[in-house]
């Protein structure tokens, strides 16, 4: 290898091997050498974002669609702003590679203080690297890069990125990127570079799973979204089909396997009234053997803690371990477990999938009168028809969008993305920028609330700058609906937000898009019809009265009322009261 290759050339070369062609970021003097190297690389494109938090969200969206992404920020004031986005990427198993600048090695004398530094009496130049380390892959993938450690550390953290499917963090003193790499004299042993299962544990796991499924009276599969992060969707679906197993999908995992598949029995949201289908819930919880593929067990993915199946018959195949009942097997790789199960299955273990009397919470065909004001159900009915095969659909962290995604029936080959485990409102607007950049030929649709959208709406101009053409459905319901249904009184002042002219926003930020505000069902139908034919970005502000709530919210309103000594509260009989000084 050419010993005159620079540090940043080496790092970018390794990154490009992951299929990354774009880098999201905000420039700054400490990170100029990294920015310049990206600008000078004909295989990479710089995507400049309006702020660092938005850049981190956009990188997250890109990584979900493309497999991995790059985020570039300057020292201190810049990189610290990305920590919320990187924490979300960590929670959601998203492979984001963060490249940050810092004072040069010669500047780090332990005495001199520079801009963007915290006011320690003795300057700590690597304080931000230390701060983010627990939120990186293996909690140990934040490193300061030097010419001496460049090869080893780059390979180490990228191996950890793939193994854990979590972010990694590489900080560059500003005199390092253009310095020559010091290549090691001997072949390096990189941890996690070639992970394999423990053979004895793998054999035991496969035999036990096969035996339990073979002897089960009733069994099913719950596929998790992490199958996408580990490129395991196809092998997992092959196992399901060979074994003939029915599958249900939990809230965050909808669309991982096609909802049009003959083995799909419905959505499993436990006993969350308004989201859960009692026929599906009953059937799943009657199973004596349930196989889950890396599902997430958090409140918005477990029916607000209402999943009631028998844990003794529960099998959880995680990326690097498997739990069978109470027994945990470590050092078994999910892809290898699935491959071995595929090889072992020679006939269907379940002859016929159940035909359930499901659909009690399904979104139906369009209803309502054209002159009616827009309520959630008529909106959802039309949005369900609007989504097409092959779309990327982003459900932002908003009650209006979550209640839609919990019940929608998605066409084939739809990539559905949400951020339910981390749950940062405002994530969706810049995240879908990443989706658009990663797949420019696909239609990218986002359903978001106007409250979260206000937090990151400055990114709209970036879509136009780089030719991205998203479809925004912004539900304007007069404030933070999620907070209205989860705090003590719905009409507290802190649930209100500034009044914006949302439909005018894209054009004010430089977007030559199709934009409309709609307040009636007829206007909504007309706008969606025109949006389907648009060659530009689309931005539809959908006004819904603030006193309306979608299905599923009353359950949450009642459940959270217990925290405020209001155990029997109901949205339709709520008191319009608040405590104000």
Give a written overview of the molecule.
The strands form four sheets. Strands 2-1-3-4-6-5 form a six-stranded parallel beta sheet, sandwiched between helices. Strands 15-14-16-17-19-18 form a six-stranded parallel beta sheet, sandwiched between helices. A five-stranded mixed beta sheet has the order 7-10-11-12-13, with helices on one face. Helix content is about 30%, strand content about 15%. It has 20 helices and 19 strands. The protein has helices at about 5-15, 30-40, 50-65, 85-90, 125-130, 150-165, 200-215, 225-230, 235-245, 280-285, 335-345, 375-385, 400-405, 430-440, 450-455, 460-465, 480-485, 505-510, 520-535, 555-560, and strands spanning about 20-25, 45-50, 70-75, 95-100, 140-145, 170-175, 220-225, 245-250, 265, 290-295, 315, 320-325, 325-330, 390-395, 415-420, 445-450, 470-475, 515-520, 540-545.
Residue share in β-strands: 15-25%
Biggest sheet: strands side by side, in what order? 2-1-3-4-6-5
Low-confidence stretches: none
Ends distance:
71 Å
Mean pLDDT: 94
Task: Give me the secondary-structure topology.
Layout: H1 7-16, E1 22-25, H2 32-40, E2 45-48, H3 52-66, E3 69-73, H4 83-91, E4 96-102, H5 127-132, E5 142-144, H6 150-164, E6 168-173, H7 199-215, E7 219-223, H8 226-229, H9 233-243, E8 247-249, E9 264-267, H10 278-285, E10 289-293, E11 314-317, E12 321-324, E13 327-330, H11 334-344, H12 376-386, E14 392-395, H13 399-405, E15 415-418, H14 428-438, E16 444-449, H15 450-456, H16 460-465, E17 471-476, H17 481-484, H18 505-508, E18 514-518, H19 521-533, E19 538-543, H20 553-561
Parallel strand pairs: 1-2, 1-3, 3-4, 4-6, 5-6, 7-10, 8-9, 10-11, 14-15, 14-16, 16-17, 17-19, 18-19
Antiparallel strand pairs: 11-12, 12-13
Helix pairs in contact: 1-6, 3-4, 3-14, 7-11, 9-11, 12-19
């Amino acid at each position: 290898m050419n010993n005159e290759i620079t540090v940043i050339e080496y790092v970018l070369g390794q990154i490009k091997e992951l299929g990354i062609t774009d880098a999201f970021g905000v420039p700054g003097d400490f990170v100029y050498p990294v920015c310049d190297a990206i600008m000078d690389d004909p295989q990479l494109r710089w995507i400049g974002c309006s702020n660092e938090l938005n850049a981190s969200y956009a990188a997250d969206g890109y990584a979900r669609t493309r497999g991995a992404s790059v985020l570039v920020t300057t020292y201190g004031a810049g990189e610290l702003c990305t920590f919320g986005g990187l924490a979300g990427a960590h929670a959601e198993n998203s492979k984001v590679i963060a490249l940050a600048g810092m004072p040069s090695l010669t500047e780090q004398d332990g005495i001199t203080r520079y801009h963007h530094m915290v006011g320690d009496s003795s300057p700590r130049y690597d304080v931000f690297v230390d701060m983010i380390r627990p939120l990186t892959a293996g909690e140990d993938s934040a490193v300061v890069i030097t010419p001496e450690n460049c090869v080893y550390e780059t390979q180490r953290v990228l191996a950890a990125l793939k193994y854990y499917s979590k972010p990694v963090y590489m900080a560059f003193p500003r005199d390092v990127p253009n310095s020559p790499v010091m290549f090691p004299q001997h072949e390096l042993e990189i941890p996690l570079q070639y992970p394999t299962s423990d053979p004895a544990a793998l054999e035991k796991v496969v035999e036990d799973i096969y035996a339990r499924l073979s002897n089960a009276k009733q069994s099913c599969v719950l596929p998790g979204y992490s199958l996408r992060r580990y490129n395991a969707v196809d092998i997992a679906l092959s196992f399901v089909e060979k074994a003939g197993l029915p599958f249900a999908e939990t809230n965050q995992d909808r669309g991982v396997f096609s909802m049009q598949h003959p083995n799909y029995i419905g959505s499993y949201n436990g006993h969350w009234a308004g989201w859960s289908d009692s026929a599906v819930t009953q059937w799943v919880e009657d199973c004596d053997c349930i196989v889950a593929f890396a599902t997430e067990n958090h409140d918005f993915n477990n029916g607000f803690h209402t999943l009631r199946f028998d844990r003794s018959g529960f099998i959880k195949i995680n990326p690097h371990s498997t739990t069978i009942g109470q027994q945990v097997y470590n050092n078994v790789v999910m892809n290898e477990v699935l491959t071995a199960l595929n090889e072992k299955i020679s006939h269907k273990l379940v002859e016929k999938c159940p035909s359930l009397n499901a659909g009690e919470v399904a979104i139906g065909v369009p209803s309502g009168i054209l002159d009616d004001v827009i309520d959630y159900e008529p909106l959802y009915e039309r949005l369900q028809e609007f989504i097409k095969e092959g779309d990327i659909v982003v459900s932002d962290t908003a009650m209006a969008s979550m209640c839609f995604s919990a019940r929608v029936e998605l066409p084939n080959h739809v990539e559905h993305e949400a951020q339910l485990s981390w749950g940062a409102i405002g994530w969706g607007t810049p995240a879908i920028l990443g989706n658009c950049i990663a797949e420019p030929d696909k239609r990218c649709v986002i359903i978001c609330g106007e409250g979260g959208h206000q937090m990151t709406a400055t990114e709209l101009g970036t879509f136009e700058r780089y030719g991205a053409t998203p479809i925004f459905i912004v539900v304007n319901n007069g404030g933070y609906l999620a907070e209205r249904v989860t705090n003590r009184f719905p009409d507290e002042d802190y649930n209100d937000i500034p009044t914006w002219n949302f439909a005018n926003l894209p054009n004010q930020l430089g977007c030559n898009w199709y934009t409309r505000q709609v307040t009636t069902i007829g206007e909504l139908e007309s706008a969606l019809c025109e949006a389907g034919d648009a060659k530009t970005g689309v931005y539809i502000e959908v006004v819904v009265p603030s006193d309306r709530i979608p299905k599923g919210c009353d359950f949450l309103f009642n459940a959270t009322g217990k925290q405020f000594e209001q155990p029997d509260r109901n949205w339709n009989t709520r008191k319009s009261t608040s405590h104000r000084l």
